[in-house]
Write a structure and sequence with these properties.
The structure holds two protein chains of two kinds. Chain A is mainly α. In chain A, 83% of the residues lie in helices and 0% in strands. Chain B is α+β, with helices and mostly antiparallel strands. In chain B, helix 1 packs across helix 3. Chain B is elongated and about 60 Å long. The chains are: A mainly alpha, B alpha+beta.
Chain lengths: 198, 104
Amino acid sequence: MKREEFFKQLREEMSGFPSQTIESTISYYDELIDDAIEDGKSEEATIESFGSVESIVNALLKEVSISKLVKEKVTPKRKLKSWEIVLIILGSPIWVSLGIALLSVCFSLYVGFWSTIVALWAADLAFMVGGIAAVIGSFTTFAVGAAPQATFFLGAGLVGIGLSIVLGFAFVALTKLIAQLGAKIITGIKKIFVGKGK
Amino acid sequence: MDNQTKRGLLDVCVLAAIKDDDSYGYQIIKDLSPLIEISESTLYPILRRLEESHMLTVRSFEHNGRLRKYYHITKDGLKRIDDFSEDWKEILTIYKFITRGKDE
């Protein structure tokens, strides 16, 4: 790929980014290509070594906040005409409520993620506390002479403690998975705003 | 090495690469790639992040009839390197404790 083609693709893929970010990214890669050529490498091979345009943009996406991307997307590229402003104001009962609805959905998703994690660990803690309580209870039960019940309590308690330990390992993995999923969703939301230009 | 550790390491590596002399993108990658896996597309977000957190400043100078961006470390950047070495002194002590007696 030649330089012009590479920059064209990069611009397309980055079309939703703040224009300042696009320009500085292009100038960064432009300089790298110049330096590589000066170092005796070919233009095509250098651009090849950068990897796919998509991976370049994905790496950048992680650094740009959602609010910046949204601002760039919703800020008009030209001055609004007066009738457009009137329409925006008249339409506010619709779009304000839609906006609030969208925000609440995002918020509930966020809360959902965290409450899942909290619920998992609460369950784990319950097994552990319940198990320990049952083991302690079994001693007192034994003391009053109810040996069969005491054995049952002891067994149930140990099962509870054991379960909580085993589940603990599983939950660590699950928590990580949920956190990763959350990060993926955020990148996905950012991608909606970046889009593919026109 | 896990991703989070590597991310933190890369930040400090980039700062260390410009610690003594200002440097530019191509040179930084050249200096770091024998030590740690770093590519053009990973360096750029790091430079932006470090600039935004005021650990380095960017200045353009002419080179062979074109502009080249040079990265200059700030006081905050130097402090980050110092903090890093302090942290690692502790980790090294722990490492020596964990692996004690293995070499004898």
